[in-house]
Amino acid sequence: MVKYDQPVVSFAIFAPSRLCGEVFRMNALLTWAVQFALVCFALAMLLAFLRLLRGPAAEDRILALDTLYVCSMLTMLALGIGFGSSTYFGIALVIALFGFVGSAALAKFLLRGEVIEP
Questions:
Q1: Does domain 36-112 correspond to CATH entry 1.10.287?
Q2: Which of 14, 22, 66, 96 has the fewest CB atoms within 10 Å around its CB?
Q3: pTM score, two decimals?
Q4: Other C-beta atoms lying within 10 Å of the C-beta of residue 67
Q5: CB-hemisphere CA count at 13 Å for 86?
Q6: What SS3 class is residue 23?
């Protein structure tokens, strides 16, 4: 059981949450790791968005979209770890599902010129 008079390391973006009736607090290393991961994912999303805008071919733009959905899924997972909430994991699962279906449809469109066959 966690005593409430103990000093706790916390940072601005992660508020402590309740987990199984006890106060759940991350240690400093995990907090810094999650924050570093979020910065890296944001940078990767920015670069992928630039490739999406400037891509010379349609294949480059599709790969940029794949990178964007994977980075957004990983961002949701990191936020779920950071906030201690399982809601973010469900959101990440939905992003992965829609991203995969979208990638398959775009690949079929580039290969055959149509998504739904008559």
A1: yes
A2: 22
A3: 0.72
A4: 17
A5: 3
A6: strand
